[in-house]
Amino acid sequence: MLLPPELSVSLRVERPLLPVRPRTPPRAPFCFSPSRLRFHRQHEFFEDGDIHRHLYLQDILTNVTEVTERSKVSEFCCHIVGCCQVFDTLEGYEHHYNTLHRNMCSFCKRSFPSVHLLDTHILEWHDSLFQIMAEKQNMYQCLVEGCAEKFKSSKDRKDHLVKVHLYPSDFRFDKPKKAKSSTKHNKPPSKLDVSMPMDVNVETYEQSQADSMEICPSESVENPTQPMSGPISSLQEKKLYKSRSVFPLCKLLLQGSGLHMCWSST
Amino acid sequence: MQASPRPLGPPHSLLGTPLTDTPGTPSYPLTDSFPTLPGPPSTRAPISTEPGTLGLLRTLRPGPPVDAAPWRLGPGSRKCAVPCRHLPRWSRRRLLPSASAAIGMWSRRSCRYRPDASGLEELRARRREQESALRKARRQQQLVSKRLLREDSLVNGDGQAGVEIAVEPLSDQEILQLLRDVQRGTEERKKLLSRLRQGLQHKETQQKFVRLEGSMRVLIGLFTSSLANVQMEAARCLHELSHSCDPAVAEACLPATSYLLTYLSGHSVEFTELCLYTLGNLAVESDAVRKQLLPQGIIPALASCIQSPHVAVLEGLGYVLSQLLQAREAPTKIIPLVLDSVLPQHMLQLVSSNLELGMGVAVEFAWCLHYIVCSHVNNTLLISQGIVSTLVLLLLELASVMSKAATEGLELLICPVLRCLSNLLAEDETEGCKVQIQDERLLVALFLFMQYFLQQHPFLVQECLWLLNNLTADEPIFCSAVLTMDLLPALLQLLSCSRMVTLLALTVLCNIAEKGPAYCYQLHQKAVLPSLLSTLALSDAQVVGQSLELLHLLFLHLPEAADDFLSQAGLQALEQHQDNPQLQERVRALSETYLQPAAASLISCASASAAVLPSS
């Protein structure tokens, strides 16, 4: 295209404006009048650009380059006390941390996928004031973000979740608080055992928490007795204790119950 | 005891103070070194006087706001009886490069193969096929595409083009066995699920899987387990299913949506990204899926998720949103919800975010904005949030970036932005305030785009011209600037391009000519007539008609133009069309009103001057 050289240089802050004649309507048979054009979403004017966009989405657009390798590091251990999970990628560690340690309840050691669910859990399970207030007013908050409804009971809330928000009736993160059961699910499945609880972590004492929102060994262990692996800065240490991710020693318990389990990612 | 690196916890989310590296550990990008978002754009930034290059297009933006709020620490104290109010999940808005693998689709957008010559031809053929299929779909208003996030390790080692799947499909028995083994945990679960996932790349396996009783339930159970790597592999299986071209397969994933949404508020970048793309694939599947996603709160979930600083997550989120916004029912059911939320403000920020890092993000949200604007639901709201100035400044920035580094894929960002501005300019005055743009630098940007993309992506030229039309229709500033900045030759060059481009260029010229004699004079001086004569030789009635309109305006304001037109054999050029019913009235009007009198006066002038010449 024939653009003037040094186009940008010729641009001054104020350009003299050519005088404008007031607009007059067009004279027949001529019909032109300047107007701003507007196209709606399905207009054919957009076809070429839309096709281009969809070719990009389908990843057919451009040419070939190298693909970056996922970086691996030497194996390392999770630093939370008592958790002996091993990783060889950062992402693996990050995901593990977020799943198990990040939003963990200090009272019952259960993990949650989000802060929101954790807060709700603490409020409803571990706050005695909550129980008192719940008798007088609706305290059970809907779990869907953006919905401000509150309910009298856990069941009412579940009904709401199912009816209004179309949630599954066995939504895993909305189990009502129950007394701990000690059911064991040791039967070998002959076909796909769909009655088996969703969680497939550790067999025995996990099952006893079938009613819980998330998984952790229920027996609480006061003090970590195993020395922490690796050097830990004092800052990190403080954070560990302050954060509620002190994890009772599964290893110890497992050894106690005679099972060999070491959660390894390899 | 294995040596372990400094306990840093998940990258990016903990302390802002840098920790010293121990040998063998990768260095995490730390918060202080991240690129920051530019601050809110001013409506008219001062122009720099950097000579030569396009420094004049670089706006001087105010620096990013100094934000003293600390990063939110990891798990906070949970001992208090009354739960603490949430801190905002991410206190500072910065685009972060994600953990190495989850780098976002934009960064991975090239083919994963390195094909040889025949492979390349095959690729091209495939692309042509795909393109015509897409065109057909669009004409039927069924343009739907899905995205696939797939591990690169599956690529065939010798780089054969088109060979994506390295594993055989699975039989019913094999699927059952895999699921049983996973439940029992007899073998390593991750490997089993990997095997399942590879099998699920095949359509037959997908269909078999969803037909098996209980299989989906087991998969969802694995997806919600707390063993992170199991969860991740299960998520990948779900993702393969969501990408299926068989609608029954994708719909079988419906029971998982509540969990997919729940996990959006998690912190694992890669996992969240996967959930987002899965949701995005499901969202385009059918009305039924969206009818479930909307009451499940997908919009509020996205509105929270958009505060993530991670590029990969944001790109995925943009993808989901763009899929939702393309739905048939979007203008009535989805766009109002989106406009009601905080999404628009964030979108505007992200669309003009750091382009090096956030290009893919910007592309997604630009398309989202386009789908919203062209639905004309409530553009006044967007205008009040500063969309016009944001987008204008973005175009200026893109134009200055373009000349330096050949950034491939820029047209994917420029296209929707142009469309937004054009449609916003055309907003009905009765509905809201009339949009006025007065930054002439936009003109420079548009012409630079047209020059850059004329060869490779001609569709962009017509989009630029559309905006140019909307700018020049009412504003004399832009009409004047085209002339005084000597952009007319470039505009005239466009008259020999495609039909739509020619038509739009003629319309722009008409916009300019309509402004009055001073403009027509300049047009005439800069040789518009010869170009017009060429367009008159075309057969397309609309193009010729627009040329006639332009001639009328020229003759109206500048009588001497008629003389020159005659002397360039204009009359003959017109006469070819005198029998065309669409054109004949105007041809006749031009002849009678301007050309014949001009011819007559020429003759009389000639005879008059002949009279005074001494006869030989």
Automatic annotation (TrEMBL), chain A:
Per its UniProt record, what InterPro entries does this chain match?
ZNF511, Znf_C2H2_type
Query: Which residue intervals are annotated with compositional bias (Basic residues) in the record?
Result: 177-188
Residue stretches making up the C2H2-type domain: 105-126, 142-165
Q: Which residues form a coiled coil?
A: none
Task: Identify the stretch(es) annotated as Disordered.
Answer: 175-195
The entry's protein name is Zinc finger protein 511
- High-level lineage: Eukaryota, Metazoa, Chordata, Craniata, Vertebrata
From TrEMBL, chain B:
- Stretches the record annotates as Disordered: 1-46
Q: Where is the composition biased (Low complexity)?
A: 14-25
Q: What is this protein called?
A: Transmembrane and coiled-coil domains 6
> What organism does the record attribute this protein to?
Chrysemys picta bellii
* Lineage of the species this protein comes from: Eukaryota, Metazoa, Chordata, Craniata, Vertebrata
